[in-house]
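Materials and Methods. Structural model of Putative serine carboxypeptidase CPVL-like protein. The 57-residue sequence of Putative serine carboxypeptidase CPVL-like protein from Leptotrombidium deliense was retrieved and submitted for structure prediction as follows.
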Amino acid sequence: ADRKIWKVDESDKEVAGYVRKVHNFYQVIVRNAGHMVPADQPRVAFAMINSFVDGTL
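The predicted structure was written out as tokens:
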């Protein structure tokens, strides 16, 4: 599957990360974050979880 650029808001200049989807499996890579994404990138982590729950990721 192709990797797509993901931004928290379309108006953001900075890329939050990358998303890849295969069937019902999502892989999200968050830039500038280690294994504790909420500690390293809280805004991005919150947006990622909301997008996943809303089905807009």
